[in-house]
């Protein structure tokens, strides 16, 4: 089977949408020999920060010499970003081979009336591949929620990590912080431990209760002593519990993510669950990358790419822009999905941009560029809808060059994935 035909088979399952619940996943994995039971995990859920925390954890484990699996979603430019080993995408041949070996099982189940969704199958492929490769540890990011997310078929992980919780996917997860926190903290299991980022007090109360019910310790990122030494668009330098560390991820929210990852790693080494030295965490943090999270893609002019798509993410982005681009004229290229809390997110950008170029996102759920422009007009004097994201970026870049300004692309990880290769190609040629 070719890589292209394997992708075709995977994406054909998109028609079955998203269906929370674990029964289908358990049935599929049982037919595949329960590969998930052969692995150890750090399980990560939350609304914002999951990807960055996973990157920091994975890089630190790799630095410590562990063969480390990584499962994340969504991908930015290459599907194989979702399944990695030692921070490298699996080969096209490995994915094609795994699909060839497992897809017939999927078809048999379909004939029996058990319909597997795309995310379930991709997650099953991850378990299958990481088990086959005999990974020592897998950093496992949930897709949506936690309690009913198909990643939650695993037994007790080494620890469960809950990053910042906010309002997102409300149609599935609930309309309140408490309801969403209950779903996210559903990954906390007995015979493990829980680690939590700084939270809204309502979310923290739910997480604390879940940890208590499971009878496991709760380690809070706020317990990590923190001293910030420097912050730039290139990243931050700080001390955590007296250890000086550097990350190439910009913004205060990334320092919080680093504290969360550090709290998890510190717990695991102190309790003898994993062998980690300060230098492993130091090297891991320094090498960790997470594309499209306040990613600096150009210096002259400054070009930033960010996938924030909910109010919490927009708030973090706004703080970073105000801190690092103060006094600069900012030309924003924005596209968003219609099922996000668009109004709340864009209201946070009131008066922040010199000009906004709205674009459609390459996704069936996109909000039209004209409708997004209409929503943005109260918050910016100059808003221009474009039908093409690359042309919108060209216009924003032209304005930034002429006015010594900066370009920000934001609103959706799908938009980030669409524009990132184009921007990199442009900056390479200049």
Describe it for me?
The protein has 430 residues and is α/β, with parallel strands linked by helices. Helices cover 42% and strands 17% of the residues. The longest helix has 20 residues, at 92-111. The two termini are 40 Å apart. 49% of the residues are buried.
Provide mean pLDDT, rounded: 94
Oligomeric description of these chains: single chain
Low-confidence stretches: none
- Main structural class: alpha/beta
Q: Which SSEs are present, and which pair or pack?
A:
Elements: H1 3-11, H2 23-31, E1 41-45, H3 50-63, E2 68-71, E3 83-85, E4 88-89, H4 92-111, H5 118-132, E5 137-141, E6 159-162, H6 170-173, H7 177-184, E7 194-196, H8 201-214, E8 218-220, E9 226-232, E10 235-240, E11 243-247, H9 252-270, H10 278-287, E12 295-299, E13 302-305, H11 311-324, E14 330-334, H12 342-347, E15 355-358, H13 369-376, E16 383-385, H14 389-402, E17 406-410, H15 413-429
Parallel strand pairs: 1-5, 1-6, 2-5, 6-7, 7-8, 13-17, 14-15, 14-17, 15-16
Antiparallel strand pairs: 2-3, 3-4, 9-10, 10-11, 12-13
Helix pairs in contact: 1-4, 3-9, 3-10, 4-5, 7-8
């Amino acid at each position: 089977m070719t890589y292209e035909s394997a992708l075709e088979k995977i994406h054909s399952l998109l028609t079955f949408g998203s269906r929370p619940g674990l029964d289908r996943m358990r049935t599929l994995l049982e037919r595949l020999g329960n590969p998930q039971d052969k692995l150890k995990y750090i399980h990560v859920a939350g609304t914002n920060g999951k990807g960055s925390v996973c990157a920091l954890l994975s890089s630190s484990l790799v630095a410590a010499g562990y063969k480390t699996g990584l499962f994340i979603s969504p991908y930015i430019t290459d599907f194989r970003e979702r399944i990695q080993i030692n921070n490298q995408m699996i080969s096209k041949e490995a994915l094609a081979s795994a699909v060839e070996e497992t897809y017939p099982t999927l078809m048999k189940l379909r004939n029996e009336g058990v319909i597997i969704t795309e995310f379930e199958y991709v997650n099953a492929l991850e378990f299958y591949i990481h088990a086959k490769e005999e990974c020592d540890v897998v950093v496992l990011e949930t897709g949506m929620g936690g309690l009913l997310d198909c990643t939650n078929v695993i037994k007790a992980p080494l620890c469960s990590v809950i990053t910042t919780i906010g309002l997102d996917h409300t149609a599935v997860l609930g309309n309140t912080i408490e309801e969403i926190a209950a779903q996210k903290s559903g990954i906390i299991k007995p015979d493990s431990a829980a680690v939590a980022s700084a939270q809204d007090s309502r979310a923290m109360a739910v997480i604390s209760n879940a940890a208590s019910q499971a009878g496991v310790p709760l380690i809070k990122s706020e317990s990590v002593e923190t001293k910030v030494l420097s912050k730039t668009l290139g990243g931050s330098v700080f001390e955590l519990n007296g250890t000086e560390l550097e990350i190439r991820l910009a913004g205060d929210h990334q320092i919080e993510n680093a504290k969360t990852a550090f709290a998890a790693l510190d717990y695991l080494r102190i309790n003898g669950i994993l062998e980690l030295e300060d230098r492993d965490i130091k090297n891991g943090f320094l090498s960790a990358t997470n594309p499209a999270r306040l990613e600096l893609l150009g210096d002259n002019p400054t070009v930033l790419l960010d996938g924030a798509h909910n109010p919490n993410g927009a708030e973090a982005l706004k703080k970073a822009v105000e801190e690092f681009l103060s006094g600069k004229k900012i030309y924003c290229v924005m596209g968003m999905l219609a099922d996000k809390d668009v109004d709340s997110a864009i209201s946070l950008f009131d008066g922040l941009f010199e000009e906004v170029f709205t674009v459609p996102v390459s996704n069936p759920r996109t909000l039209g560029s004209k409708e997004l422009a209409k929503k943005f007009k109260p918050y910016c004097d100059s808003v221009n809808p474009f039908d093409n994201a690359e042309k919108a970026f060209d216009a924003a870049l032209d304005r930034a060059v002429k006015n010594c300004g900066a370009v920000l692309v934001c609103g959706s990880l799908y938009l980030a994935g669409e524009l990132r290769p184009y921007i990199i190609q442009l900056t390479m040629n200049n």
